[in-house]
Amino acid sequence: MFGSMETDDVSPMFLLKLKPYMLRYRRQYVAGFAALLLTVVFGGTVPWLLKYPIDILRDEGATPSFYLHILFFLAVALLAGVARFFMRRILIGISRKIEYDFRNDLFAHLQKLSLSFYHRYRTGDIMARATNDINAVRNVLGPGIMYSVYTLIYTLYALSMMLQINIRLTLLALLPFPVVAFGVNRVIRHLYRYSHDVQTLYSDLTSRVEENISGIRVVKAYRQEKRQMEAFKQLNLTYMRKNLKLALFRGAMFAGITLLSGMGIAIILYFGGRGVISGQITLGEFVSFNTYLLTLTWPMIAVGWVINLFQMGSASYSRIQKIFAEQPEVRDTARTNFAIRRLSGEIECRHVYFKYHRDSDFVLRDVSFRIEAGMFVGIVGETGCGKTTLVRLLARLYEPQRGKILIGGHEIREIPLSVLRREVGVVPQDDFLFSETIRENIAFSGNGEYGPEAIEKIARVVQIDREITEFVDRYETLLGERGINLSGGQKQRIAIARAALLRPKILILDDALSAVDTATEKSILENLKREFRGTTRIMVSHRVASLADADLILVMENGAIVEKGTHSELLRKDGIYANLYYKQLIEEELEHIE
């Protein structure tokens, strides 16, 4: 739907890319443009009707014919006002509907994009494109299109009526138009460049605010408030200066058009006044002609305003299009077998290699292992050895560059993503809670399929039920941003409950119990073992002792599996695992002594 666009494209041709959205409302557009034509006809007829009562009043006085023409003039003016109301309501209303569709599509596209996209784009930048930039595009689709068409048709209509009144005066009135066209052509590219710069700086401002609000505890902990305020002040100053330059070009364009319009009126007042005195045109015709000229002042100003709208919209669309041009790396493809509806808990990795960036080194190297359904598997290793990367691959959050991963006997790329997401539950290291109630956070994975009983049962399994009932509003307690009003251990257990609620065939805990004490951790693991007997449980942990009951332990170092076996088998090998185990035992003993 969305093709490429160069960043220096300042033409309105980008609207062709939005054709699918506009076609959805083609009937409304027909009605809107019909109202626009009526607005032009009635509005363009009003000045013409002025000449009759004026000439009658001058020649005959306030006769019944004079009042009849006044009533007819008012009726046409009323019809012009009604037509203008429906023109604006329909055409600008369509732009709001397209904005709604466009923003929904952008959000849906963002949901489909892989994690690598979010590594490259800042949150504030994405937010700016989804709000401010889309609004700029909407301004083109609504006022931009409406006033472009209205200005063109009304100008032609008004000029045709002016030509019927007096050809010489009409040609004199057109003298400023070439100057206007030349000035607009000179300003237009500057408008686009500054519009693009302003939109980009707005993204930077949004990102700066978002990062400071999200990381306010870090900012305060390191006493960086003044430094952050100064950095924001400098960025805001640059944004203000760019906006002032943009306003300067806008103001110069509008002022120039208004000046030239005034010059046109002055020319007509001089030559037209002489024409009335000499009897070449009547007073009524002169008033009518001047009224037409005055009504053309707004279309001339609207030209500059519409051009500015198109430049802002073009710059914004080019930024939004870059997101639409992004394709998810992880998605259903021609290889996907949609006949797969269920998975067993068997997992096999065959010589898997993975790196995050094309030019970087491999994070995982020649990883191979097999896990039987229902096993409890532990993954251990020093920080940065690739544990989290491995479980992300098992959940297909990333794709390996080499090797194969099989889930339930199926190559992972053949499994529909909807099936994989349902059958593989993942609790990541950075547990994220939404600003909703505790109940809604636990039920988040269930799409409304699970009632209060199921939610409370899984809360008891992960040892969080008792603490929830101590809150005043219990499960209806509203959480702050990212669950700020909960402890780290409480957040982790709610995150585990969310993943476990679906009762997946594979449950992955990526260091998800690091913030709870060892006794609670042991109780949770025992509950999971009892409640999820047929589920394959994979646990990444820094606490080696927590994996003593594991059926298989994978020991990682520098992106490779260097040891594998049970707890007792690995201790007998007296290798890396044994060193980690005894080292942690000594640390625990020292803590008790202290």
Any overview of this molecule?
- The protein is an alpha/beta fold.
- It has 2 domains: 12-324, ABC transporter type 1, transmembrane domain (ABC transporter transmembrane region fold); 347-593, P-loop containing nucleotide triphosphate hydrolases (Rossmann fold, 3-Layer(aba) Sandwich), CATH 3.40.50.
- It has 20 helices and 10 strands.
- It has helices at residues 19-23, 26-59, 64-112, 115-120, 123-165, 167-173, 176-214, 216-221, 225-278, 283-295, 297-324, 387-394, 417-423, 438-442, 452-461, 465-469, 488-500, 518-531, 567-573, 576-593; strands spanning 347-354, 364-371, 376-381, 402-407, 410-411, 424-427, 506-510, 536-540, 552-557, 560-565.
- The strands form 2 sheets. A 6-stranded mixed β-sheet has the order 6-7-8-3-9-10, with helices on both faces. It has a 4-stranded antiparallel β-sheet with strand order 2-1-4-5, with helices on one face.
- Helix 3 packs antiparallel against helix 5 and helix 15 (452-461) crosses helix 17 (488-500).
- The chain is elongated and about 120 Å long.
Features:
2 domains, 20 helices, Rossmann fold, 4-stranded antiparallel sheet, elongated, ABC transporter transmembrane region fold, 6-stranded mixed sheet, alpha/beta
Write the layout of secondary structure elements.
Elements: H1 19-23, H2 26-59, H3 64-112, H4 115-120, H5 123-165, H6 167-173, H7 176-214, H8 216-221, H9 225-278, H10 283-295, H11 297-324, E1 347-354, E2 364-371, E3 376-381, H12 387-394, E4 402-407, E5 410-411, H13 417-423, E6 424-427, H14 438-442, H15 452-461, H16 465-469, H17 488-500, E7 506-510, H18 518-531, E8 536-540, E9 552-557, E10 560-565, H19 567-573, H20 576-593
